[in-house]
Amino acid sequence: MSKSFGMPIILPNATQHDLTNPKTNLHYRIQISWPLDWDRTKTLRASKVPVIYILDGNSLFLTASEILWRSSSNTFYQGGGIIVGIGYQDVPTDSGSLYSSQRNTDLTLSEHEVYAGLGGADSFLDFVEQQVRPFVRNQFQDVSIGEEAIFGHSFGGLCVLHAMFSKRGGSFDAYFAASPSVWWDVKIVEEAENFCSCKDEMACSLQLSYGSLEANPRRATSESDIEFEERIQRSAERKMGENAIAMEKTLRESGRLRDTSIINFEGEDHCTVATSALLRALSTFLDH
């Protein structure tokens, strides 16, 4: 690309902060945004503002912020809330991707016999609980923090489910798991069963979602017969929609949660469903 003489883009009402997990020495980039008409939000929310924490912040923070700002006048958003993206300090132009390999450590439950460095979800969630959330509250001392939610997609969705099933369950008011990678680790199914065996009700909700094309892939124009057949096979093995439906049914029938829902986003695949699910998560969470 030739040298540009334009001005860099500056986001309104947004900041970023670099934090380190003192227990693992892993580094994070915390990005925060809030409504453009902040005084209006504080008035509508009676100075008790909701917060949603978004995993894979590098790839989803800007999307979430734009959704919030664009929908500020939408009745369902009721003045909006605070967006917190939990991401990484990687430079996307160096790696060629918005996704950091560190997510493979942070968002998975168990060590893997082939892939090294996995299984750090508990350390990561402790960091979110003990470092990130207090840090965010300290940034907004002029308001009280209202309800809090957590959103994750793919491995992030798996991590969200683990957060709800673990000892931390109920620390968030709403959990949003988009296309959770249940297929990756059978431990999450065991955790769900143990979670449901307890009869104590929890005042939190869960929204699961997936894309219809995850079960019935559409062939890309550039795809060969072999490539398409291989992708069909992977989809059949991973059972993204089937696993999400089964998980929601099990949790709904347990009666432990305030509310559960399952959404099939028609025409979306595993990648594109993240945006649709995030939009729905924001409108659902902020509508109260």
UniProtKB/TrEMBL annotation:
Q: Pfam families under this entry?
A: Esterase
Q: Which UniProt keywords apply?
A: Hydrolase
User: Which segments does the entry list as coiled coil?
Assistant: none
Any single GO molecular-function term of the entry would be: hydrolase activity, acting on ester bonds
Which family is it part of? Belongs to the esterase D family.
Annotated PANTHER family: SIDEROPHORE TRIACETYLFUSARININE C ESTERASE, SIDEROPHORE-DEGRADING ESTERASE (EUROFUNG)
Record's protein name: Siderophore esterase IroE-like protein
